[in-house]
Amino acid sequence: MKILITAGPTRESIDPVRYLTNRSSGKMGYAIAQSAINQNHEVILVSGPVSLEPPNDCKIINIESADQMYKEVQSNSKGCDAVIMVAAVADYTPAVYYKEKIKKADDREIRLVRTKDILGSMRESFGYNGILVGFAAETNELRENAIGKMQQKGCNFIVSNDVSRNDIGFGSDQNEVTIFDENGAQQHIDKSSKNLIADAIIEKIETIYGE
Ligand code: CTP
How far is the CA of 88 from the centre of ligand 1 (A)? Predict the structure, then answer.
C-alpha cells in the first residue's frame, strides 16, 4: 500500500522570532511511519518541526505551518491507499504575520483566524475508497468526542487518547488509546509503547484494505 502519514506539531509564525505551537513530539506519527515501512508499505511522511531522526526508506516532506501541511497533504495524497493524520495541527493561526519583530512597547493584541481542517477536507478530495484515519486528542468525554470527530471528518477509524494524563501521550514513548471504527467496533489498547500501538494501527489498515 501507499500510505501518507502526518506527524508532529505545526508552527504558526507571529513575527520573525515568535510562533504558536503545541506539545506534540511527533513520536506517535514517526512510530506509525516506521511500522508501515517495516511491513513494506510505501510511506510519505509529512512532518512538522520535531527533533527525531527521520525513518529510512520513506519520502519525508518537512513543513512548518498548518497551511503548508494542508497543501502538501492535498497534493501528495493523490494515488495513496491510506492517509493517517497523526499531526497536532494548529486550529488557529495569526491573522497577520509581522515582518518586523514586534516591540513590547507596541502593546499589540494578536488576532487569530481558523486554519483549514485538513482531515475534515480529505474525504472529498481523497475519494471514497481511500482509507482515512484520524487521531483525537481529548481531555474529557473521550468516547463521544472521538466518535463525533470520526463521523464528521469521514474517517474509517479514529484513534483517541487522553491528553490530560502526563504519563502517556505528548512527548512520552508510551500511549494508551481506544480505536473507534465506523462500524461501531471499539478496541482499547492498554498503556504500551507507541511502536506496539503503531503496529496495531497498521494491521487494522491492512485488514480494511484486504476486505
Ligand atoms: N486535524 C486536521 N486539521 C486541523 C485540526 C485537526 O487535520 N486543522 C486532524 C488531526 O490531525 C487529527 C484530527 O483532526 O487527526 C482531530 O484533531 P483534534 O485536535 O483532536 O480535533 P479538532 O478537529 O482540532 O477539534 P477540537 O479542537 O474541537 O477538539
Answer: 7
